[in-house]
Amino acid sequence: MPQLAVRVGRAKPSTIMVIAQKARQLKAAGRDIISFSVGVPNFLPGEHVYAAAREALAHDSGQYGNNRGSEALQDAFLQHIEALGFHGYQRANVAIGIGAKQVLYNLAEALLDEGDEITFAAPYWTTYRDIADIIGARINPLPCGPQHNYKLTPEQLDAALVRKPKVFLFNNPSNPTGMVYTQVEIAALADVLVRHPETWIVTDDIYAAMVFDGIGYHNFVHARPELRDRLIFVDSVSKTYGMPGWRVGFLAGPEVVAKAITTLNSSHITSLPEVVSAAAVAALTGPQDVTRAKCKDFAARRDVVYGALSAIPGVVCPRPQGAFYAFPDISVAFGKRHGGTMIENDVGFCAALLEAKGVACVPGSAFGEPRAMRISYTCPAEQLQPGLQRIAEFFAELA
């Protein structure tokens, strides 16, 4: 029998989806399950988005679209990033794909040859490593533990960039930690980046609208405009507008990069469907009240989650300031027993928690930090407090 390509052996199922599927199976079997596993916003976009989709469906041409994305969607995205402080970008600087994940994958294909190095902070979103593995890139994760609030320091970045990696990938606000870099912190990192011109900079900022505590959203190109010639900004409608299933992702960057992604689109996806494009245009250009309301709601949920986790003896949880995640250090539980189960590591902790209390969380090792676990607090509101209470009970029962 012929063999599969070697790269397929480097592809791994999403740990997050594996946990979510296990939770669904238990729920289908009659268990009372509360899932803190999947990072979906769990709200729907405003009615104007659906109205735009219905209108587009009524006049659907059934034809192929633009490989770069429809001109209306390009313009809507340009308007969106102008409001974020990205000035002077044109259609030639933009490319649109089937979600930010596909955009990031295409960027990896466009920027990285096999054996090239990519560097990013750890904890990291699981897909960063997965994509790099498939492409055959060398990975240099930069450990940023809870003692440093899960944030990269200028000294760490400088040491990493001395190695001349082809790509530096940066996520702000962060999945899985919910941490947000301040304007001062961004400026300090930008000063380092200016000194290392050999490296592409990719900023995955899909949670930019979900920032709490008045910190605001900041990007390296705001602090040092000269970085614009090698910085690629990635965004999507998934988290901001409650549209993860619509699969619309964007990038803005140097014209040569946007052109490369557009060319890859012509082979990979051809184009977005007209109906999806119309809905995304409406989301970007229409009323933003749903997004603003959900940001306030997530900030309030953050307070509840952070308070509950901070009250558990031995658990360390830097205070999240964006997205909808908390990433507590649970290593105080390692080496202890819950009933007859020895908790040896984060994977064992999450498995025991799901089995004993019906709460699904994702082990931190999936994100490059095996001392922790990720909590996504986008579950139905009535499940939040009970889920946190079950976690507290689990810790209290350890011996």
Structural write-up:
With 399 residues, this protein is α/β, with parallel strands linked by helices. The chain folds into 2 domains: 6-44 and 290-396, Aspartate Aminotransferase, domain 1, CATH 3.90.1150.10; 47-285, Aspartate Aminotransferase, domain 2 (3-Layer(aba) Sandwich). 42% of the residues lie in helices and 14% in strands. It has 14 helices and 14 strands. The chain has helices spanning 6-10, 15-28, 47-58, 71-83, 99-111, 126-135, 154-161, 183-194, 220-223, 255-268, 274-285, 289-310, 346-357, 381-396; strands at residues 34-35, 94-97, 117-122, 138-143, 167-171, 200-204, 231-236, 249-252, 325-326, 336-338, 341-343, 359-360, 362-363, 373-376. The strands form 4 sheets. A 7-stranded mixed β-sheet has the order 2-8-7-6-5-3-4, with helices on both faces. Strand 10 (336-338) and strand 11 (341-343) form a beta hairpin. Helix 5 runs parallel beside helix 6 (126-135). It is globular, with a radius of gyration of 21 Å. 48% of the residues are buried.
